[in-house]
Amino acid sequence: MIRPDSDIKYLKGVGERRAQLFAKLGVPTVGALLRFYPRAYEDWSKIIPIDEAPFGENCCVRGVVVRKPEANLIRRGLTIYKTEVTDGKSLMRITIFNSRYAADKLVQGEEYLFFGKVTGNLWGREMASPAIERASGGDRIRPIYRCTEGLSSNVIEMRTAAAIEGAAESCAEALPRDLREKYDLLGIKDALTQIHFPKSGGELEAARKRLIFEELLTLRLGLSLMRSGKRGRVGVKIERDRTGEFLDLLPFRATNAQKRAVADAARDMMRDEPMNRLVQGDVGSGKTAVAAALVYSAAKNAVQSAVMAPTEILASQHFKTFSSFFEGTGIKCALLTGSLSASEKRAVKEKVKNGEINLLIGTHAVIQKDVEFLRLGLIVTDEQHRFGVAQRGALSKKGVNPHTLVMSATPIPRTLALMIYGDLDISVIDEMPPGRLPPETYLISGDKRERAYNYIKRHLDRGLQGYIVCPLIEEGESELFAAREYKEMLESRYFADRKLGLLHGRMKQAEKESVMSSFAAGKIELLVSTTVIEVGVDVPNAAVMLVENAERFGLSQLHQLRGRIGRGAAKSSCILVSDAQGKEALRRLKIMASTSDGFKIAEEDMRLRGPGDFFGSRQHGLPELKIADMMTDTKLLALAVKAAEEILRDDPRLKDEKNKGIRANVAELFRSGGVSN
Ligand code: ADP
Ligand code: MG
After folding, report:
1. 289 C-alpha to center of ligand 1: Å?
2. Residue 13 half-sphere exposure, CB side, CA atoms within 13 Å?
């Protein structure tokens, strides 16, 4: 008997050779074949009369072959077979390229189904290279599979039919009956049968619903279990909220959105459970001040904090920002980065350990090492647009149970955030500090570059500063601009009398810092840089940015880059230079030019790249999904999040017998994802 876990080679009609091809498609077992869902469907059940067949769309036509196809040798290696078919009312031309086999199958006077794209004009319709079946064999919705050379969609379809016949019965049902009833979900056998061979659109919908729900539920549960070690344990409580005091100290008035985020978090921190909050706000919305208010309040309650940044530049910038926020308050900050000498590091760690330091700032790597705190109560992670799902899990293992605050610059839809972050509470900063003007964005081709330089010069003449961003550090791929050469070129040809700086990721930390502080102090007017400035750098006087090879950058990345300007009172401009011709690239760049709404951009970015890629699944442990699409299946996403909550409420560790199947699903989905914490 064939079972879901049987090697695919034992399935009828497969064998060793085809098994290798199936392995190429990631299908080693019969069960994997059952879960190898069609990538599309052809609806052969709806037969369209020839004279009603829509132009340019796939459809199915039934017709009798009028005469045997004639071969025309167009040139060596290209033979075209032509014939006509009739449905009794109209004629349609059929053209078959190079396939003698397909042409020979068509017998004059016999009836067939033809599926393909209809072209032609009012005087006649035509189908080129249609899929052909005997009229008796069609009348159904056909699955189309991703295939590989030597293994066609047709063959996969037939093997799948065999797998369903032989093994669908013994597929384990992972979802308990009460759950299926509550959410109106098909049983697994019907779902698998109908996803491959739906008899109607309704059957397909029902199958998709069950399988997408199951996959999203599994993902949500998996992410929750990763973190559930933290649930319910008591962190260091803040006895008295001192955030209001801090907000009064700020040189500006906090926006209402900032105040709300601070209040949300301050309330969390006075509870017995550790805070687990995400603060979402577009670039420039002022997340740092929110974090500082909480750090301040913690310090005034004799509780230490740690702030983690994704890059060293950003860590040292945070160090400066927090230090100036806390001037005169008695709160002591320290920076721990890779560029400190061993003895300096030792000194910092010692002071952290004995409680002299209230706030330690660094990158993830530094904080995760052997740093001991006297009384760590708050960890702030500035992720900007990176999503360190797995990383955060590791952090909570530090033994203490600190309150955690994650700051993210990527506004993502709420249900999606719930999916990814699960039990994180969310505060949204949906308001920009007053007086901000979003940057104007222009898209230009390379031949307009000189005009752009003049435009930049005029900014520098007014005492403003600017950035030029290049995709590379050194000359590499010929058509790409490299920062180092670019700066030399600018110095010798266009900006001879200007102060230029260079910043890239391969510079030593101390060099980077000195360049950044010269730029911040206005000693550098124009900074030529790679994307190291992408994250969080804050120099309000910078009002113009030019991005070379803009097509090279992702949408969210461009949005982050552009977020470096428009931080001051001056109107700012972002110039995207690109000679890209590709439709997709142009579409992306036009989106950038047309909106500065981070929410829209993130959504578009996710749509273009797919959420897995967007969230950096490879690095961060989000497993790949087979059927669900987190961007479009939003209704099921919300249902799955709700169902996951209900399941965990009754069975927090998924230990119940009835949840055994779900637990196995979680293990399976996360097996390759690298999520172990
Ligand atoms: P992000 O959310 O991108 O991290 P920052 O915290 O770096 O933004 O803030 C961007 C700039 O806006 C900083 O220069 C900061 O001092 C300033 N800022 C923050 N909040 C306000 C406010 N309420 N009013 C005026 N300026 C503010
Ligand atoms: Mg920031």
Report:
1. 7
2. 12
